[in-house]
Amino acid sequence: MTKEDYISSLKDLHHVVYYNGKRVEDVTEHPGLRPHIDSAALTYELALRPEYEDLMTATSHLTGKRINRFTHIHQSVDDLIKKVQMLRLIAHETGSCFQRCVGLDALNAVYMTSYDVDEKYKTGYFGRFKKYLIHVQESNVMVVGGMTDPKGDRSLPPSKQGDPDLFTHIVERQSDGIIIRGAKAHMTGGINSHEILIMPTQAMMENEKDYALSCAVPLNAPGIILIFGRQTNEERKFEEGFDAGNPFGPVGGEALIIFEDVFVPWEQVFLCGEYDMAGLLVERFATMHRQNYGGCKGGVSDVLIGATALAAEYQGTAGASHIKEKIAEMIHLTETLYAGSVACSAMGYKTSSGAYYPDPLLANTTKQNVTRHVYEIARLAHDVAGGIVATMPFQADLESSEVGRYVKKYLAGAKGVPVEARIKILRLIENMSGGTALVESMHGAGSPQTQKVMYVRLGNLEQKKRWAKRLVGIEKSDIERSD
Amino acid sequence: MTKEDYISSLKDLHHVVYYNGKRVEDVTEHPGLRPHIDSAALTYELALRPEYEDLMTATSHLTGKRINRFTHIHQSVDDLIKKVQMLRLIAHETGSCFQRCVGLDALNAVYMTSYDVDEKYKTGYFGRFKKYLIHVQESNVMVVGGMTDPKGDRSLPPSKQGDPDLFTHIVERQSDGIIIRGAKAHMTGGINSHEILIMPTQAMMENEKDYALSCAVPLNAPGIILIFGRQTNEERKFEEGFDAGNPFGPVGGEALIIFEDVFVPWEQVFLCGEYDMAGLLVERFATMHRQNYGGCKGGVSDVLIGATALAAEYQGTAGASHIKEKIAEMIHLTETLYAGSVACSAMGYKTSSGAYYPDPLLANTTKQNVTRHVYEIARLAHDVAGGIVATMPFQADLESSEVGRYVKKYLAGAKGVPVEARIKILRLIENMSGGTALVESMHGAGSPQTQKVMYVRLGNLEQKKRWAKRLVGIEKSDIERSD
Amino acid sequence: MTKEDYISSLKDLHHVVYYNGKRVEDVTEHPGLRPHIDSAALTYELALRPEYEDLMTATSHLTGKRINRFTHIHQSVDDLIKKVQMLRLIAHETGSCFQRCVGLDALNAVYMTSYDVDEKYKTGYFGRFKKYLIHVQESNVMVVGGMTDPKGDRSLPPSKQGDPDLFTHIVERQSDGIIIRGAKAHMTGGINSHEILIMPTQAMMENEKDYALSCAVPLNAPGIILIFGRQTNEERKFEEGFDAGNPFGPVGGEALIIFEDVFVPWEQVFLCGEYDMAGLLVERFATMHRQNYGGCKGGVSDVLIGATALAAEYQGTAGASHIKEKIAEMIHLTETLYAGSVACSAMGYKTSSGAYYPDPLLANTTKQNVTRHVYEIARLAHDVAGGIVATMPFQADLESSEVGRYVKKYLAGAKGVPVEARIKILRLIENMSGGTALVESMHGAGSPQTQKVMYVRLGNLEQKKRWAKRLVGIEKSDIERSD
Amino acid sequence: MTKEDYISSLKDLHHVVYYNGKRVEDVTEHPGLRPHIDSAALTYELALRPEYEDLMTATSHLTGKRINRFTHIHQSVDDLIKKVQMLRLIAHETGSCFQRCVGLDALNAVYMTSYDVDEKYKTGYFGRFKKYLIHVQESNVMVVGGMTDPKGDRSLPPSKQGDPDLFTHIVERQSDGIIIRGAKAHMTGGINSHEILIMPTQAMMENEKDYALSCAVPLNAPGIILIFGRQTNEERKFEEGFDAGNPFGPVGGEALIIFEDVFVPWEQVFLCGEYDMAGLLVERFATMHRQNYGGCKGGVSDVLIGATALAAEYQGTAGASHIKEKIAEMIHLTETLYAGSVACSAMGYKTSSGAYYPDPLLANTTKQNVTRHVYEIARLAHDVAGGIVATMPFQADLESSEVGRYVKKYLAGAKGVPVEARIKILRLIENMSGGTALVESMHGAGSPQTQKVMYVRLGNLEQKKRWAKRLVGIEKSDIERSD
User: Fold this and answer.
1) Considering D115, D211, D293, D338, which one is annotated as catalytic?
2) Sequence-ordered alpha helix ranges (H) in A144-257
């Protein structure tokens, strides 16, 4: 599938998308949406370039065919590492989110877990899912992974919410399929995916069986409505020119996806009531998604570091020792993020299904660092770039016959640097270091506290206590109450 | 002067302002500018409220009349502290910059320094300046302090720039006044001030006498052009509604002010060629401006903390221990900022001119903390508020007859909280924690490195070395090469 | 009282002190204790120097006599600020804790609170306490403030502990006085104080009346036993020479003070069962003690910065830009600490008793910063000083006839710097940046979480929420469940 | 070689060691040195345990024999990862440095680089070195890697120092070998190694050929003198009991090793004047040594986390939410360290010599994080453990017939926990979080600035700039002056 095929397939999708209160007829022609489509399109385009074949494609373990890596089930540690390298590679092209990892992680998580559900309950989910997977691999469709429910009052479980639909659930079981209702929030790449692979949003209790749900649906299915989320400076996308900063947008483009009694045939249902398996599916998706963040954000940071270094160069400060120190610090933080993604991949292991899984403790560590370092990297970019990043005139001022000459005269930097080049770089920094871009680093793949919770579970505190006691000679018998 | 008087005086100003490539006929009717005018207007309005009289007004030491504190020369430590308290007070009303401290600090800095220039050079600047000051106090005009020059290639001094106008300078000395050319960048409150008080941008050398310039000019003087800087999400100001977040804008509104051969009569010239005094004037303005940041940003942070606590409450997470911990941390950082402003005021002292001056080392400490903690406070706000702060639908979606019911249904939070209230608070957080607002904290009153430089100068390192040597008994005679 | 008088008074005290398992006959002759005595002695010595009279002494509001400021009840904001300045001054002499502020804070806290207890319960504590205070002011004795109880299992209140003595309590009420039992832990300056002023360790419940206790006792009273705490590198104090680093020790010297059925006459009892006032007393002592930490630790840091700058100079790295940056950062952190102490003092206010009290929110902010920045300052000192700070040979090696010449040859630094001077400075850094010194910054005047708890109580979160709601136009009536 | 063989071989070494100004006759019987010997001995002991065979041993690529991994040349990425896992494993046993990685890294660095020197200069170093390596592998001797020279005035190169010996150098070239003079500082494991493998301390210039030196010498060679460095609380090692905290000492034990005209036969010389290759050798050793720090310090941190969790449990605070949060944070920081070591290993590659080399950018990232996080981990340990960690009585007090009962009574914690167990754990925390242990994390394998310097060299800033320019459409031709 070429980039063009991908875009034309979206044109044909006729899914129900709303933007700023209005129905969007053709997402591909909508300036508010197109940057995100162009970004995702690179996952198709780069896969066709010979020099990237090794990273961007893989061999299907089911069909033996060469497939886009975004549809691949990881068969080795090497696959896990290549995933991370691929993400950093594409981010160097986009300087923004390209969205498609969500579906990849959903495919892998459901693959592993449907296998385990079958093992436990003798269900037939795994076989169904393999068929679905072959369809995805062959058609190379873009799948959005749908996990986060709106959740209403977060202090209450699904069963105690005023509105039962605040968690997506099964409304009815029919002979040929199920009817579902609810919504998935913050759906990255939602408006430009072909299908959604739904997963539960958290571990579920016995009285929450209807919320233990995994299934796949095309996004143009009847009853599905997508509402696009408003981003920082989204109006600039409607302008011709460079004030928007990054032509691929500040983040991936998030949508609220509503399921108003949507029918799903049984062949596309992969978890339906096995509530005790919901937690495992959530944890696996989260781990695989957290694995990514040092790859993609590492690559995005590389671009921001480059832009920051250029901003310094363009205004004559690149030689100052404190500027060099700050750029070195940005590199340090970026490589710390990347190290996390590589490490959890290198320590990955095979699950019962045969698919490989990254080390969950290290994957959580990776994401937690992202929630901190991306902000600090942005802070350093602002420091180096200067106040001008927040006070520059509009592009229309630069181009004005009345005041354009003043903007050119007074925004001049180092000799030989066109003012326009300087402004473009500063607008890129503005785009990459502001609101939406930061928040995505904080909450994408799970808010910081979700990683902290995993540390307690995965950190093996009892073993650590034993090492300490052995070292100073505290015997088990010394302590009645101890472990 | 009431709020209304202030606004109508701006209507009458007829200064030359550009916004987005177009000349603005009336700044007070322009949706892109009005929020900033409304914010500054509060410095007039609150001064008329009896309960704030003590903080918002003062008695002129020149005329004995009751004046707006924003035109007052500090006569005591108590005045310095009240300034800081006033700033925090107003910030509680605006949650944003109200701009007028820049002029206040410029008035005080020029007051002190013109006195010292006269002492050294037997010039008559101080007398002139006092007359100008009485005019400002009596008319209660808003004065913007003009320090930062565009500076072109920052590795070069004014005399080495390709274009001599990249630093504002005297082009001609005439019998009745001087002609100046150049520009001042990042001028907070520029478009809604009446006058500008120009100061040099840095210490100057002997061959840079024409750049050693301080003078006052009305902003409607011939040859002055203002170009408004583009802000984060500035298009939202043109909408009716609440997506803009804060009705007073994210920051004070910055403009590039251009001086195209502007005439200034001698009575309004306060430094003209005494190059060796430029550095002192810069340092004093910087110190007094850095004094402020724990006051105003402290107050702004209070509002952001309140919004963050409400966001948590509205979505049912206010009781979680990690949420409470994060809000406590936001309070800690905020009070650390405020402590700096109070401390440098409490340690202030009288200058030769009689005006009081805050402790410069502590004032620099205050600003440096602002360049760090405001980012961390924003990060914590994002953490607590959740990803929704970056993915919410448009207000038009909420109000749409087609999808409005879905937005209401799926953005519902805790029982009894209207969805609109929740969205308003989240939009406020978005506004206060994004791009422009952060950058202003970084670079307003001087970029971080300018404070670091002052630490070396003011930190009294030689005395610190002596204390260490005394403690361990190192005699002066032990070390040939030492101090 | 001269330094010599103070020392000889300790000789005469004959209190029961244990060090390393052995009874100490004369604390003033014990090498393990003497550094701390010498440090406290400076509070006597400096008070007699004319140049420090203003800071080190005050006029008693009770007797009108000139007294040591360490026995003064603060009568103004100026007194609060002078206290902080005095602490920084003495720390420049000692580079370590001089212990006597604990008693000063206890005197002020009991003064204020005994007044309030009398107001509420018509007791006569305040009159008694004033008599006691006059005794302290006239005799200029050193008083240790005794707050922290051992507390056993910290998840349990006093009444649920296995051993009721883990919180200090009244065992018996007699006609002439009371009998108390228990212990006070971490008593800074314990072994070289004359008396102890006991306070409760936390707020108490109705069934904990016997724990609501404040009283004063001489430390040589029958039944009192002091056990000195082991410090980092304490054996080096027993050596002649400079490996110990700081001749005044790394911290103040802490002792465990045991009360084995100690009799206290009624005249020295200032709280006895009014359980509901215990919390207020604790909070006041804590606030006044937290006020100090930017003063004393600020001064200690000044010395460490000086030592670090010398270490760099002595090894030829002082000119490197990253070294200068790190020293500037140490100054920044130090002044941030100091700003807190000054600010809470400047915002202090008068209590009903007439005594002045620092702003509690800012005092807590001060201490919280100390728990962080002192560690970072130490880290930077290590960074600049180099690995040599941890791998230097013994002084005996330097002086050895066999290998001394190698130590001199290979530890040589910049030209003209004697190796001994270099080692002395590095040993000083080692002393000031290691174990005990850091822990004291963490837990002295209350562990970090105790300040966090106060933020919630003092941070006025409801007011902050109101500001946010007003700004975006959320009416009270909008939200049923809100405040 | 068993642990016992190792120890007895040291007894037989008869090398010249000084401790505290006195010659040590038998290092294995010296209480000040024995802890470090016991720690290194575990590298022998664990290698004989079947369950650790895979990690602790390897197959020699030269002889095909099973060898201790500390003598192995890495033949694959897997070898690089196993090295890191081995380090974390041993650290769980020791909670301290076990020293032997220095020699391992020196062997690998000299192996790779002697190959490259031969390639360039047709010298025969590589062949010689392989013979030496076989000797090391077969005899399983402990080799200390000798890099850091004393360096005198750090602002001067070797040739400008007052004393030419401040950098180790060749004094004379003879027919059978060379004579060297100088010293190596901070030599971890120096006093309990059998041999030293000397490398240059930095890149060298043409006029510094005599400083471009690599060779191996037994530590009992005539002219070699070792002086042991003084550590935090080193006197406690001479006590029987547990106040010393960790029986393996706080760090590895560092020595200053002096070369007073030491003869080295040509067979053991691996670089001799090829000054332009010195920098490469230094960089490779540094990279491989920095690779380790997330492994060993990760393991050490695990023990400290365990001890901290026990301290909380023993005093009844383990259930508090802020305590759990802090322990989770310690885990986060520890896994971040480990992630670095794993990542640079996973991204390792084959050098021309055939030996594998970790990714240098990620290895530097790892070490830089260690210089920060180990301090923060220590700070958190202090926070959780409480002030008691710095004020506990001596062990002799606990055992005293006079006051022991008070110590037991008042240091009691949660029910069922013997006071002695509590004290042991707190002493372990004290040992692991104080002076020497921290400094080692800062400067071992290179001070922080050495990593910052590498970021600039390895961070590929020009490529990052190109990505940024491409994204916003800045053409090469736009910028005359750009790259």
Assistant:
1) D293
2) none
Decide if B111 is catalytic.
no
What amino acid is encoded at B211 in this protein?
Answer: Y
Q: Locate tokens 């210039």: which residue?
A: D205
For residue C188, what are the β-bridge partners? C254
Give how far C321 is from chain A: nearest CA, Å.
7
Beta bridge partners of B177: B265
Alpha helix positions (H), D316-416: 321-346, 360-385, 388-391, 395-399, 404-410
Task: Locate A468 and state its tokens.
Answer: 């300490």
B289 tagged catalytic = yes
Q: Which H or E run contains C429?
A: helix C419-432
Would the CA dihedral through B3, B6, B8, B10 be positive or negative? negative
Rg (CA), chain C: 24
**SS3 labels along B456-469:** HHHCCHHHHHHHHH
Instruction: Give A-chain residues touching B165 at CB under 8 angstroms.
Output: 409-410
Q: Which long-range contacts (CB under 8 A, 24 or more apart) does B319-325 make?
A: B319/A155, B320/A155, B320/A449, B321/D321, B321/D322, B321/D325, B322/A449, B322/A452, B322/D321, B322/D325, B323/B384, B324/C456, B325/C452, B325/D321, B325/D322, B325/D325
B382–A413 C-beta distance less than 8 A: no
Answer yes or no: B101 catalytic.
yes
Is residue A203 within 8 Å of residue A282, measured between CB atoms? yes
The answer to whether residue B240 is catalytic is no
Q: How far apart are CA D364 and CA D343, in angstroms?
A: 11
Chain D partners of B325 at a C-beta cutoff of 8 Å?
321-322, 325
Q: Which residues of C325-348 are buried (b: 16+ CB within 10 A; e: fewer)?
A: bbbbbbbbbbbbbbbbbbbbbbbb
A312 φ/ψ angles, rounded to the nearest 5 degrees = -65, -45
CA distance A255 to A192: 10
pTM passes above 0.90: yes
Query: Is the separation of the CB atoms in D385 and D426 below 8 Å?
Result: yes
Is B300 in contact with B95 (CB distance < 8 Å)? yes
How many Å apart are CA A91 and CA B118, to the nearest integer? 60
Residues of chain A contacting residue B154, judged by C-beta atoms under 8 Å apart:
315-317
- On the CB side of A104, how many CA atoms lie within 13 Å of its CA? 29
Q: Could you list the pLDDT tens digit for every one of the 483 residues in chain B?
A: 899 999 999 999 999 999 999 999 999 999 999 999 999 999 999 999 999 999 999 999 999 999 999 999 999 999 999 999 999 999 999 999 999 999 999 999 999 999 999 999 999 999 999 999 999 999 999 999 999 999 999 999 999 999 999 999 999 999 999 999 999 999 999 999 999 999 999 999 999 999 999 999 999 999 999 999 999 999 999 998 999 999 999 999 999 999 999 999 999 999 999 999 999 999 999 999 999 999 999 999 999 999 999 999 999 999 999 999 999 999 999 999 999 999 999 999 999 999 999 999 999 999 999 999 999 999 999 999 999 999 999 999 999 999 999 999 999 999 999 999 999 999 999 999 988 888 888 888 889 999 988 988 888 989 988 988 898 899 876 765 444
* Helix boundaries (H) for B50-100: 53-56, 77-94
Instruction: Spot the catalytic one: A30, A94, A440, A450.
Output: A440
DSSP B414: S
Enumerate residues 6+ apart whose C-beta is below 8 A from D236.
C235, D243, D244, D245
Cβ pair A186, A268 in contact under 8 A: no
Q: Phi-psi bin for A10: left (phi > 0), alpha (psi -120 to 50), beta?
A: alpha
Q: Determine phi and psi for D78, rounding to 5 degrees.
A: -60, -40
Angle between helices D461-472 and A77-94 (to 10 degrees): 60
In a mutational test of the C interface, the residue from D191, D201, D227 whose CB has the highest number of chain C CBs within 10 Å is: D227
